[in-house]
Amino acid sequence: MQAATIPSTTPIPGKYWQWRGHDLYFVKAGEKHSQRPPLLLVHGFGASTDHWRKNIAELQHDFEVYAIDLLGFGRSEKPKLQYGGDLWRDQLRDFITEVIGEKAVLAGNSLGGYASLSVAAQCPDSAAGLVLLNSAGPFSKDEPTVEPEALQSEIEPPLNEKLQKLFGDFAKLIFKQPLAQFILFQYIRQRWVIRQTLEKVYLDKSAITEQLIEEIRRPSGDEGAFDVFCSVFSTPQGEKVDVLLQQLTCPLLLLWGEADPWMNAKERSQKYRQYYPQLTEYYLRAGHCPHDEVPLQLNPLLRDWVLSI
Q: Rounded to whole angstroms, how far apart are CA atoms 204 and 286?
């Protein structure tokens, strides 16, 4: 089975970095190489540095590798703030400047992909390259219901399935209410709900382990986690993906889990190619999180591409 062949599923111990008065968690592995850029791995909504453990275990042999918990997620602090792409863009930019100390190749999954794209497009001095894994974010020509906002795109699909069948667009209004948000938050952090959601977005069910479920569930018990969750429903829409792509100047790699039920990889690929035709891309038999589901296939593709840029 795929999951059983992974060399290591043990997360690497990390440390904290102070940013704007908040404690942010990150991990570092591998040694600096003079001719190779460091890697910075950025998780999706509800995930953390733990979600990259299978990738760090392999990539650290060839690169200096960093992974970071975005403010509001994982082991990072969860202050009551206005969360959005600009905040995480600034966090990643400052981390690259203050901690890594040189341009990095950013690799982001889903929400982390959108944040990484924002950095690479708007802070070009920070990015040596960009790798997007089933990246979230709206295009200008999308209808509002086709591609939710960068943050909401990862929480709304299960909401749509269960509730919008009953309430339609009224469901969105309902879940802007504090009590409804609290009830939904308590619901989605249940272990069985996490497993059910993962089973929809992972093609290889053997990759869904108790360890993975606990890594996603654990941060939801932290102080401030509910406030972060509520921000999903009030975050202003960030810059459109096509606008960011037109600002991008560094090499771009797209790695698609082609069985992702939350986004149509082929359709989104065409949009990326429309605005950044010189990209490289690969399709993998996986769902929304190909880095965790098929790391033995993904890691060599990522490594070889970075070495080629």
A: 7
Angle 175-181-185 from CA coordinates, rounded to 5°? 130
Rounded to 10 deg, the angle between the 191-201 and 178-188 helix axes is: 80
How far is it, in rounded angstroms, from Cα 86 to Cα 91?
A: 9
| Cβ neighbours for 258, distance < 8 A, ≥ 6 positions apart | 265, 266, 283, 284, 285, 286
pLDDT digits (tens, 9 = 90+) for 106-126: 999 999 999 999 999 999 999
What is the Cα–Cα distance from 77 to 52, expressed in whole angstroms?
19
Which pLDDT belongs to residue 239? Answer: 86
pLDDT tens digit sequence for 231-256: 866 666 678 999 999 999 999 999 99
Q: Are strands 22-29 and 65-68 parallel, antiparallel or unpaired?
A: antiparallel
Cβ(133)–Cβ(67) below 8 Å: no
Specify the pTM: 0.87
* 25/38 Cα distance (integer angstroms): 18
Q: Cα separation of 70 and 96, whole Å?
A: 13
pLDDT at res. 62: 95
Q: How far is 199 from 75, CA to CA, in rounded Å?
A: 24
For β-strands 252-257 and 15-19, DSSP reports them as unpaired
Q: Are 206 and 3 in contact (CB under 8 A)?
A: yes
Q: Please give the pLDDT value at position 185.
A: 83
For the chain, residues with pLDDT lower than 50 are 1-4, 143-160
Question: Quick one: which of 70, 82, 252, 241 has its CA closest to 146?
Answer: 241
Q: 62 with 92: CB under 8 angstroms?
A: no
3-state class of 44 per DSSP? coil
Alpha carbon dihedral 17, 47, 143, 106, in 10-degree steps, equals: 50
